[in-house]
Each structure stands twice: as C-alpha cells, then as structure tokens.
Write a structure and sequence with these properties.
alpha/beta, Rossmann fold, 10 strands, binds adenosine-5'-triphosphate, binds magnesium ion
C-alpha cells in the first residue's frame, strides 16, 4: 500500500490493520520494548529492522499475544486486543511465524499444515464433525503448500527438508489459517542466496488482501518487499519511512547498515 492509499484510508475512516499506542514490555528491570507507536494500514507491506536486541521479536510477541504488554495498547482492525489471548487474536486473522523453527520434524509437511489449520479452527475438537470437514481441511493444507511452492514435498517428513524448506513450511502453516495479518520473524535468516530469492518472490506474490509485517535483517529482502520500514533501536522506533528514505537515512547507516547486515553467504 502506498502512503497515499494509507492516507486515503485514514480519511475514509478505515481502521488500521494494526495500531500500537505506547506499547512497552519489561523483563524485570530490562526494557525490551519501551514505548512503541505503530500503525500499519490494511494490505500494507511493512518491514521492521533493527540491530540484535532492539526489541523486534518482543514486539511481535506482544502483538500476537504470546507476551502481555507491560504498558500501552494493541488494536487489530480497530478492536482493542491488549488483553485478548493469542488464540482469539488468531481468530481475528493474525498469524505469525517464529524466529526459531517450531516445526515437528517427525510430521509430514501435509500433516504439519493440516494441524496448524486445526489449531485455529479447533478450540474443541469434535471427531464426527472433523471427519466431515477433513477433506476440505486437507485441501486447504495442500493449497497453502502450493502457495509457497512446497507442494512437491507434501508427503515428506519435515525433518528431511532443508532449512529453506522449513521456512516455506512455516509460512504455509501461517497462510493456511487464511490470515488477514501475517507476521514473519526473519523468514530469510540462514538461507542461501537462492533460497532468499525464493522467499522474496514468495512474499512479493502474496495476496494483497493480506497485511504483511516482516522482521528481517537481510536488507535485500526487506527493502524489496516492504513499502514502509520501521527501524527499532533499544526498544524504541527511531526511524520510519519508505525503503528509499531508509537507505538515505544517516542514523540507519550509523546504527545498522554500517554493521554489515547485508547477507552475502
Ligand atoms: N523472555 C525474555 N526474558 C528476558 N529477556 C528477554 C526475553 N526475550 C527477550 N529478552 C531481551 O529483550 C531484549 C530484546 O530482545 P528481542 O528478542 O526482542 O530482540 P530482537 O530485536 O528480536 O533481536 P534479534 O535481532 O537478535 O532477534 C534483549 O535484550 C533480550 O535479551
Ligand atoms: Mg528477534
């Protein structure tokens, strides 16, 4: 979404997909996130950058409800979800992947995606109803695999896949819940150049109805995919702008780009 489109939406009174006001999170005396204000428009592609320990993953955890906020508020599509458990936020259309893979290596790709759909659709599993719905859910799992170009590995065990394929499966699992907001924590980390290109293409090809929020150290991926970039440092947002503005920003260079965050393996 362009800035203009976001402005138009604001004028038309459309609620942002995500709105944070003064969000903070402490761990004892450590302020991992201090006071973050953030608005992401529906359909926008947003990247969150920042050095190690800046608070990016903690912010994701607070948005998703995996961690409670120590201060401030979180809204999804205009609804205050600050005190809502993560599974309810998932039902509102929020899906995420994790920085560290949480895949079960002994499951097949299809079963992994299938179970992630049940996790959202679930609550109470009723076997009889489930049986009737099973075929439709299997179909959805296969469709999600197709969207991330991993359908040829549906029957394989997750444990037999490459690191890059693990990332694809994780994105497929998130997509299978048909999210309105997809949050990815470093989807390109540890990938080969070829795999990073694949992930970039995958993200560029995502349905525009999905709002995408991406934490990514790889600038090639982040600046290519994002329309706006939020730069965090020491628990705060310090710069926000378009990829061009971020490239030209001196503070960004000083705190971040100077440290060689361009992956070049
Ligand atoms: N569960 C936790 N308990 C205590 N401290 C934590 C916890 N999670 C994160 N922290 C601390 O909070 C700070 C921010 O961590 P966070 O993981 O959010 O950073 P990040 O920006 O995601 O970094 P990276 O780029 O390395 O993933 C760090 O100092 C980290 O050690
Ligand atoms: Mg992190």
């Amino acid at each position: 979404m362009t800035e203009t489109a976001a402005d138009e939406q604001a004028v038309a009174g459309v609620a942002p997909a995500l709105r944070l006001r003064g969000v903070g999170r402490r761990f004892g005396g450590l302020h991992a996130v201090r006071s973050v204000d953030l608005e992401v428009a529906p359909g926008e592609r947003r990247a969150i950058l920042g050095p190690n320990g800046a608070g990016k993953t903690t912010l994701f955890n607070v948005i998703a409800g995996d961690l409670s906020a120590s201060s401030g508020s979180v809204e999804l599509f205009g609804q205050d979800v600050t005190h809502m458990p993560s599974r309810h936020r998932a039902r509102l259309g929020l899906a995420r992947t994790y920085q560290q893979s949480r895949l079960l290596l002994g499951l097949s790709v299809e079963d992994s995606i299938y179970l992630s759909i049940l996790g959202v659709a679930g609550g109470h599993l009723r076997p009889v109803i489930l049986k009737r719905r099973d075929r439709a859910i299997r179909q959805r799992a296969r469709e999600a695999a197709r969207r991330v170009a991993i359908e040829h590995k549906l029957a394989e065990l997750v444990g037999s896949l490459s690191h890059g394929e693990h990332r694809q499966v994780a994105v497929a699992m998130a997509l299978a819940s048909e999210p309105k907001i997809l949050m990815l924590d470093e989807p390109a980390s540890g990938l080969s150049r070829g795999e990073r290109l694949l992930v970039t293409e995958l993200l560029l090809g995502l349905d525009r109805a999905i709002t995408l929020i991406l934490i990514e150290h790889d600038m090639d991926v982040a600046l290519r995919v994002a329309e706006r970039v939020t730069m965090m440092h020491d628990g705060n947002v310090i710069v926000e702008g378009t990829p061009d503005e971020i490239r030209a920003n001196e503070l960004v260079h000083e705190l971040y780009l100077g440290r060689q965050h361009y992956a070049d393996e």
